Amino acid sequence: MADRPLTIAIDGPAAAGKGTLAKRVSQHYGLAYLDTGLLYRAVGRLAAESGVDLDDPEATGAIAARLDTADLTETGLRGREAGERASRVAVHPPVREALIAFQRSFASQPGGAVLDGRDIGTVICPDAEVKIFVTASPEVRARRRTDELNAKGRSVAYETILAEVRDRDARDAGRSAAPLRPAQDALLLDTSEMDIETAFRAACDLIDRATS
Ligand code: DC
What GO terms fall under cellular component here (predicted)? Predict the structure, then answer.
């Protein structure tokens, strides 16, 4: 294990299981954890609540600049509508720029950190000791998300979720500002055929090898 604080960047598309994986990895290595999607979700939600057009770069950027950590604890941020709004405001450079300082300062805390998102390895922490790009086929991601929602009693059709997953992939990877893509030095982890336990062990293997 490295002596200096360890920064682990975990990126990947929507519903790839990054959050669950990143949280477990952070607990395993005793590192702080930031789900950066929450920042964009909070901006989207505040914009919608205050009647700001989600497609307005300057107005949503101003909201991002005023974002407070208390805004991240709001309930309802993890839902589908919040994810859709987040993906829309995340295309705007002023929004992304306003959120950089907070993410970098979190990443550089003395004890080290795990951050998950879309551009952690490419833009936020290009010098992270370990970069993992987690993915799974759109069909597998949609199936997992559908099962998760159904288990919570929210009946939703697989086809609806698959269409949402594909839309989000297209927007997150197709935008010109910090598009979703693996950093050149990212380690790829395709979890299509893995359950969460297997994916967690595979991620730890990658991290241990990269830091030994
Ligand atoms: O990871 P998530 O599903 O909570 O992210 C919601 C949206 O926020 C995602 O579709 C795109 C945006 N996002 C981003 O652009 N950059 C990040 N680092 C994290 C999220």
Answer: cytoplasm
- Ligand 1 pocket (Cβ < 6 Å) reads 14, 36-37, 40-41, 83, 86-87, 90, 117-119, 168, 172
Cβ atoms within 10 A of the Cβ of 66, count?
Answer: 10
Check whether residue 105 and residue 50 sit in a common domain.
yes
pTM of the model: 0.95
CA distances from 207 to 119, 156, 160, 198 (A): 19, 36, 35, 14
Task: Mark whether 173 and 187 lie in a shared domain.
Answer: yes
Instruction: Give the total number of structural domains in the chain.
Output: 2
Token output for 8: 């682990």
Both tokens assigned to 82 = 């919040």
Amino acid at site 7: T
Which residue, judged by its Cα, is nearest atom 11 of ligand 1? Answer: 87
